[in-house]
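Exercise 7. Given the encoded structure of a 324-residue chain, write a plausible sequence.
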């Protein structure tokens, strides 16, 4: 399988997803102000972003409403408070975690909602439940994707079986998700080829959602893109859990399609993202995240290390061997 396109061309099939509110919400428990969310919504429209993920569709029987901001739950009235009827070309999405979402209760029929897409997030071992959620959301009229998390921990036969099931489902795309920031471009290249071998014959697309533990999020995103992935996730200022994600400003600066405009994102970064950092919110690359990425481990221990303001990196590294 050869690379698709080159540095001087653009592919019209590429679509950019802004995941700032959803992945960035893991940094501040989704307590974004309406002003912040509205400003990002307008910036994404002006920048030509194709989809904006508004947050999670989390089950209130599992998560206490008082412990989180509105974007953990994405109730219809909260969404419309920001976007109205969303009379724009940019589509809106929410993420639904297997085992943490009650779609039958909380997901409205598409004609009653401003949401366009439901992205179902699953681990490889909960794929049957993910397929059920995908089929249900699709039956209500939504576009759907399947985001297979922690793919760096999955065995190739299990991935192939999951892709076989997904090829027969009503999804728009399946996502390569490097949850632990453990992968390098050569591995992303092979995974993208594998995903495309199953998805292309079924008329479906492949996406990439990368984390920056080893400062590979941007490199891995453009590597997947060059091999044929067409749905590309990014966040402004790389805001996301732990080490964060592929930076939107990096991605829009790289893509050659003239529909994309980096300037509105830079202005949003100046006026809003920097304020969050000044207020003390922490995310982005640091050595503790490098180490969990290197060890192919969930970043929870590195997040705790950060909260404790520890600097004993060598001790932390050797403690990780007991978690492996």
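Solution.
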């Amino acid at each position: 399988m050869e690379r698709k396109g080159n540095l001087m061309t653009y592919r019209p099939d590429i679509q950019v997803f802004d995941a700032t509110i959803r992945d960035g919400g893991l940094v501040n428990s989704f307590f974004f102000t309406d002003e912040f969310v509205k400003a990002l919504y307008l910036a994404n429209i002006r920048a030509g972003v194709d989809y904006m993920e508004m947050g999670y569709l989390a089950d209130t029987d599992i998560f206490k409403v008082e412990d989180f901001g509105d974007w953990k739950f994405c109730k219809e009235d909260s969404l419309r408070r920001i976007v109205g009827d969303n009379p724009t070309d940019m589509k809106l999405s929410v993420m639904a975690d297997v085992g943490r979402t009650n779609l039958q209760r909380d997901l409205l029929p598409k004609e009653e909602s401003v949401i366009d897409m439901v992205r179902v997030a699953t681990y490889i071992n909960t794929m049957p439940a993910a397929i059920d959620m995908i089929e249900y959301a699709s039956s209500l009229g939504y576009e759907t994707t399947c985001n297979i998390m922690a793919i760096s921990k999955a065995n190739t036969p299990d991935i192939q079986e999951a892709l076989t099931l997904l090829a027969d489902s009503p999804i728009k795309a399946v996502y390569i998700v490097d949850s632990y920031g453990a992968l390098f471009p050569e591995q992303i290249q092979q995974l993208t080829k594998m995903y495309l071998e199953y998805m292309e014959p079924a008329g479906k697309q492949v996406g990439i959602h990368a984390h920056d533990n080893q400062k590979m999020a941007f490199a891995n995103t453009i590597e997947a893109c060059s091999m044929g992935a067409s749905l590309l996730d990014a966040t402004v200022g790389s805001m996301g859990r732990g080490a964060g994600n592929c930076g939107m400003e990096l991605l829009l600066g790289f893509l050659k399609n003239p529909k994309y405009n980096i300037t509105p994102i830079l202005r949003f970064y100046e006026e809003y993202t920097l304020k969050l950092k000044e207020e003390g919110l922490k995310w982005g690359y640091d050595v503790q995240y490098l180490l969990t990425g290197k060890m192919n481990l969930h970043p929870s221990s590195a997040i705790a290390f950060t909260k404790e303001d520890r600097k004993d990196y060598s001790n932390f590294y050797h403690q990780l061997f007991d978690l492996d």
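Remark. Residues 131 and 169 are 7 Å apart (CA to CA). Students should compare their own answers with the one above.
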